Amino acid sequence: MKKYLSRLMLGVTVLVAATAAHAGAIDDAVKRGTLKVGMDPTYMPFEMTDKRGEIIGFEVDILKAMAKSMGVKLELVSTGYDGIIPAFLTGKFDMIGSGMTLTQERNLRLNFSEPFIVVGQTLLIRKDLEGTIKSYKDLNDEKYRLTSKLGTTGEMVAKKLISKAKYHGYDNEQEGVLDVVNGKADAFVYDAPYNVVAEKKVGSGKLVFLEEPFTFEPLAFGLKKGDYDSLNYINNFLHQIRNDGTYDRIHDKWFKSSEWLKDME
User: Fold this and answer.
1) Is the N end or the C end of the chain the one with fewer CB atoms within 10 Å?
2) Structurally, how many domains does the chain consist of?
3) pTM score over 0.90
4) Domain containing 148: what range?
5) Domain of residue 135, CATH code
6) Whether residue 108 is found in the same domain as residue 139
7) How far apart are CA 45 and CA 253, in angstroms?
8) Within-domain flag for 62
């Protein structure tokens, strides 16, 4: 009996130690006093760098509200998008908050919160292709050249749904858009919120925005597998801000107004 109790207590001790050793991201952030979020600040209007060098945007404001609800400071860790998951898995930051689409492939490596917004892939095409290209299906020909940002669902969709066209990806969105503006590519494949801004900001009257999304893409926060306490906190936070007016205020600031464009270079 004594031997049984001894083993039982040992098991409890090991379980408690393991639980403490695997504290969730939110608990870690509260203890540290800082929520560290990995982000590639190139995705208008979700996260971008203004002319003062500050990272601003729709998702940034949601994360600021989240950090405030936790009573901690927000620290944004600028990370290239194509390396953001490996950097996260090696402990560089607590979570991913970088306009990341919740895909089944990514879900095998990460846990995701509930979506904070749903977007879809759209097209920016050369002005002289207006009327000829009416949907992504019309681009599925080897005579066309597509661009997007490497490591994003824009790249995935281009290679999967428009696979016959030639593809060249870039490390940032603006290079891809400028390829179309300068006539070096026929279309840029990317999320609708970015494309609607890019057409106005860098389109120079040489682009046509085909605004009808042709994919379904929920954007969510990425966490480590098994971190259910953090998922619980973040999901409850998202429910709270959706129902107390905070989410609508933040959303309208970035999607129903263009005032923020004055802060960009």
Assistant:
1) N
2) 2
3) no
4) 121-210
5) 3.40.190.10
6) no
7) 10
8) yes
